[in-house]
Design goal:
The chain is α/β, with parallel strands linked by helices. The protein has 5 helices and 6 strands, in the order ααβαββββαβα.
Length: 183
């Protein structure tokens, strides 16, 4: 919830005046419960969607990072409240766990954006692309050059790439949802 990628993604949505919500999954930070290998965390996302629906009653654009992108995409695919899906730094293998994305074809015709660093240590480009191309259209897949999992630089390109991730996210929001920043 407090890492730079999640913070910059929330800022990209806030740029358009959209309400945003960041939360910790069960057992993370001060959250109650225990980590449930992604099963219970899907319920955490659905609870957050329910709260957002009651509080704002607006169509929802979902964005998640790393483990949260995998869990959130699974929770949001096919949910009629969801108007757009964003996966940032989607892992393929991390912390001894394998992540699958064979649910992506069922996500329907909502716009989808997937952004990863081309040097993401948890997502070899070829393996991740093999999953992402199965997502139904419209979908965009963007690999940011010289970026690792956290969109930081790599030795040959040390400057952080968070601004490139944020810019791509803002451009996608504007293009697919016709939003402009409030005056």
């Amino acid at each position: 919830m407090h890492n730079k990628v999640v913070y910059h993604a929330a800022k990209a949505f806030s740029y358009f005046g959209l309400p945003t919500m960041r939360f910790n999954f069960r057992g993370t930070g001060l959250s109650e419960g225990a980590h449930d290998e992604g099963r219970g965390e899907v319920d955490d996302v659905r609870s957050a969607l329910d709260w957002l629906t009651v509080r704002f009653n607006l169509p929802i654009l979902f964005a998640g990072f790393s483990f949260g992108s995998n869990v959130g995409l699974r929770a949001c695919c096919g949910d009629a409240r969801i108007r757009g899906l964003v996966g940032l730094g989607l892992p393929v293998r991390a912390a001894g766990r394998d992540y699958r994305y064979d649910f992506l074809p069922a996500c329907g015709p909502v716009p989808k954006l997937f952004i990863s660093g081309d040097h993401d240590e948890f997502s070899p480009r070829g393996a991740l692309e093999a999953y992402l191309v199965s997502a139904s259209q419209p979908r965009e897949i963007l690999f940011i050059e010289g970026a690792d999992h956290f969109f930081a630089g790599i030795p040959g390109s040390p400057q952080p790439k968070l601004d490139l991730m944020s810019s791509a996210l803002r451009a996608w929001i504007s293009a697919h949802f016709g939003l402009t920043p409030p005056a």
